Structures are given as structure tokens and as C-alpha cells.
Amino acid sequence: MLLRNISRACALPAAAAVVVLSAGAAGAHVTISPSEGAAGSYTVLTASVPHGCDGSPTTKVAIQLPEQLLSITPTRNPLWEVEKVMVALDEPVTDAHGNEVTERVGQVVYTAKTPLPEGYRDAFELSLQVPDVAGETLVFPVIQTCAKGETAWVEVAAEGSTEELAKPAPTLTVLPAEGDGHGGGADEASAETEVEPAAAEPADDGGTNTLGAAGLIAGLLGLGAGGAALMRSRQGS
């Protein structure tokens, strides 16, 4: 019994070590978060670069954009120069604002002012509107260039495959739209809420006011007549 308990105690740390190592391996990939977004919604994607190329510091990160995206706004990073690389469209298209578009942002390139050392990470933010392609998975291949060599995060698993990829490309899964993409769902719900009308004030009844005034005057006249009679009675006595 003692030997069995010792064996179990030793097996638990070993299993935990396997889990930690697996999580570390997954966390070592270049990723984009969040990994999901509702069609038509506005979001900010964060591309994370957690290490260099086999120990060599990172000098450039080029993020390729899926063709479904027409425009994107990269956030400036004080340690990097940023550039939007435009590509011509095969045919002009009309954007959500009714404008004719003949080119789109093909990739966003961050070039380090000082190489990012091995053992340090950095992140790059991209503001965009998720295209209206619910059910599709958008792929963002990333080329990480280092002082020595480069790493291409461009692998995409075949549909239905469970194979573990060595250098997977970051992806974004497009979910069904929510509201109008601008938070309009809440406004519509407010507009549909019934507002109970305030109780109407009673109308001004001129006849009632007139009768009340006449009664007040009659009462005052009666009070005066009674006082005069009392004075005459006292004088006669």
C-alpha cells in the first residue's frame, strides 16, 4: 500500500509537467486575439510575438491580411516603425459607406527601431471591422524576421484535420452578426420599450369656479347683516 501511494504521488507531478510543457509550447506561437469576432462588428486584434528566431532578436514583423479585409488601422508602437502596404484589387468594389475602392491593405509591417531581444515579447494592435462572412475563418500569416534567419507562421490545417502544426498562422473565426455592428441592438430595444403616458390633468371647470365665488360673496353679505342686527339690538336695550 505504501509503495502504491508513493507511485501515485510521483505520477501526479509528472502529469502536471506534461500539461505545463504543452501549454508553454502553444503559448510560444505568434497569435492573434481575440480569436473570434461577430460579422460587421468593430474590434481591435492584438498580434503577440513571444520570442525570437532560435535565440536571435526580432527585427521585423509582417502581418499579412486576408483578402476579405479592405481596410485596417494599425496602432503605432513607440519601439517600432509601422507601414501599411497597399495592393491593387482585381476589380473595384464598393465599401460599407458607398465609396468605390480600388486597393486594400495587403499587409502591415512593423520594423524594430531596436531589435526585440530573445526572452522578451511585444504586441501589435490592429483596429478593423470584421467582414460580413459569418462561418468563415480568416487567416493572418505572419513573417517574423530576425537578426539571423526568420520564422514563417503560415501553416494552415486542412479542414477536419487535428494535426498539431509547428508554425500555425494566426486566425480569426467570424461569428454571426449581433445587432447592426455599431451597438444598434441596444438602441432598438430601447425604442421598442413602451412608455406609459402620464395621467391627464382635470380640465378647468369655469362653471364650478363661478358658483364657488358666488357662494363666498353671499356668505360675507350674510355675516355683515347679522352683525348690523346685533348692534341695533344692543342700542335698543
Properties at a glance:
alpha+beta, 34% strand, four-stranded antiparallel β-sheet, disordered N terminus, five-stranded antiparallel β-sheet, Immunoglobulin-like, 28% helix
Helix fraction by DSSP (H/I, runs of at least 4): 25-40%
Spans with pLDDT under 50 lasting ≥5 residues? 1-26, 183-195
CATH architecture of one domain: Sandwich
The description of the largest β-sheet is: 5 strands, antiparallel
Question: Radius of gyration in whole Å, from Cα?
Answer: 39 Å
Structure report:
The chain has a domain at 28-158: Immunoglobulin-like, CATH 2.60.40. The chain has helices spanning 2-27, 184-192, 206-236, and strands at residues 31-33, 36-38, 42-49, 58-64, 73-74, 80-94, 100-116, 122-129, 137-139, 142-146, 150-153, 171-175. Strand 6 and strand 7 form a beta hairpin. The radius of gyration is 39 Å and the shape is globular. The chain has 3 helices and 12 strands. A 5-stranded antiparallel beta sheet has the order 6-7-4-10-11, with no helix packed on it. The protein is an alpha+beta fold.
Topology:
Elements: H1 2-27, E1 31-33, E2 36-38, E3 42-49, E4 58-64, E5 73-74, E6 80-94, E7 100-116, E8 122-129, E9 137-139, E10 142-146, E11 150-153, E12 171-175, H2 184-192, H3 206-236
Parallel strand pairs: 2-12
Antiparallel strand pairs: 1-3, 3-8, 4-7, 4-10, 5-8, 6-7, 9-12, 10-11
Structure summary:
With 237 residues, the protein is an alpha+beta fold. The protein has helices at residues 2-27, 184-192, 206-236; strands at residues 31-33, 36-38, 42-49, 58-64, 73-74, 80-94, 100-116, 122-129, 137-139, 142-146, 150-153, 171-175. It has a domain at 28-158: Immunoglobulin-like.
